[in-house]
Prior knowledge:
It is a single chain. This protein has a domain at about 55-105 and about 115-180. It is about 60% helix and about 10% strand. The chain has about 220 residues and is mainly alpha-helical. It has 6 helices and 4 strands. Helix 3 (about 60-70) crosses helix 5 and helix 4 (about 75-95) runs antiparallel to helix 5. The strands form 2 sheets. The protein has a two-stranded antiparallel ribbon with strand order 1-2. It has helices spanning about 1-15, 50-55, 60-70, 75-95, 135-200, 205-219; strands spanning about 30, 35-40, 100-110, 115-125. It is elongated, with a radius of gyration of 38 Å. About 5% of the residues are buried.
Amino acid sequence: xxxxxxxxxxxxGLSGCHIYRTYERPELSGxxxxxxxxxMTEDTMSLADFSWKELFTDTVLQQLIEKGIANNTxxxxxxxxxxxxxxxxxxxxxxxxxxxxxxxxxxxxxxxGNSPTKTYNLAASADWELDIFGRLTNAKREAKAVLEQSQxxxxxxxxxxxxxxxxxxxxxxxxxxxxxxxxxTAEIWAENLRVMKALKKAGQTxxxxxxxxxxxxxS
Length: 219
């Protein structure tokens, strides 16, 4: 019992004697850019503050984006990296707790045909690492940094995916519109060619004028 009390007192006394100092970010004045220009303090809202559903209200595009988010391989890998980092952080937090091990044993003895005698033995041991030199603390901070990095990477992959899908969607809409305009233009040139041939047949225009209209239609 005395050894346990002495160990607790030592751990409490050494907990405040770390050999490292916690990093503290220095206070900075309200400046921005490389030239230390005072930062604007008005409205700081940007597109990054809105969800993609608020930016893209087209229901068809929203369905395409949702399908891409659910099935994109790179994004699924990024999700798995986030889960891995979360498990690593949980493991580093559990390292502060004592580890307990149990070793149960049992024996059966029978002498000269007598009824067997059963003997049970349950041995337990506990191990607790004191974070005197900050190894566990640094491991937890590293795991937390890895988690934040994985989350940022996942967000970057998802943002790039959404931008690619939206850009492709609007490009297809533009091409569809251009195709529709081209078809209507071709119909107009075909009608002009029909009129010019009728005028030539009536003797009111020349073969050269008809050829020019036909060349424009083909172009």
